[in-house]
Structures are given as structure tokens and as C-alpha cells.
């Protein structure tokens, strides 16, 4: 996942329209949103921050590219895989970004 996203971001150029679509599982830890790769093996929230991919990193990479329009769609099942951890409420946290951002439900609301 990391290599594929990095390759996608590297191919964006000034003036482009960037469209990122993610369908899978996502969660938040301490207000940061994470996307889970298919080989995700973290056992707790502390490991998850390093084994998952930060959604902010996707957006930041797209914004740095100079693309004239960035669209990010996170179609993520967002329940808490680490019940009782520091991962706050269900769902993804709000994101402040210049990109067009689409989530399947309101921030902090799991589906």
C-alpha cells in the first residue's frame, strides 16, 4: 500500500487533477485517521500507528504536488479494532484540507 500510494503521489504534477479512492478499513487514533493495508497485523493502537497508512499523508502528498484539484474519497468501514484503546470515538476524525474530501458518514461517526 505504501509503495502504491507513494507512486501515485509522485506521478501528480502541477495543473493535474488528483483523484484518490480508498475502499477498505480505516480508523482514528488520537484524532489522526489511518487506512489499513491488506497485510495489517498490528495488535494494538500503538503498533497500528506504524503499520497503517496515515490518511493525512495521502492528502499532504497530493497538496505538495501542485495539482490544481485534489479529490480524496475514503470509503472506509470505520469501527474500532482496538476496543478500550486511545482511539476515541468510532469513525474517522475531521480533516482540515484544501482537497475535496468524501467520507461515507459524518466525522467521528462509525458505520
Produce the secondary structure layout.
Layout: H1 2-10, E1 17-29, E2 32-35, H2 45-51, E3 53-54, H3 55-64, E4 69-77, E5 100-102
Parallel strand pairs: 1-4, 4-5
Antiparallel strand pairs: 1-2, 2-3
Describe the structure.
The protein is of the alpha/beta class and 111 residues long. The protein is built from three helices and five strands. A five-stranded mixed beta sheet has the order 3-2-1-4-5, with helices on both faces. Strand 1 and strand 2 form a beta hairpin. The longest helix is centred in the middle third of the chain and has 10 residues, at 55-64. The two termini are 23 Å apart. The mean pLDDT is 80.
Order of SSEs = HEEHEHEE
Shape: elongated
What is the end-to-end distance?
A: 23 Å
Count the E strands. Answer: 5
**Order of adjacent strands in the largest pleated sheet:** 3-2-1-4-5
| Number of helices, counting only DSSP H or I runs of 4 residues or more | 3
**Helix share, percent:** 10-25%
Class from helix and strand fractions:
alpha/beta
Estimate the mean pLDDT confidence: 80
- Main sheet properties: 5 strands, mixed
Question: Uncertain runs with pLDDT below 50, 5 residues or more?
Answer: none
Radius of gyration: 14 Å
Proportion in β-strands: 25-35%
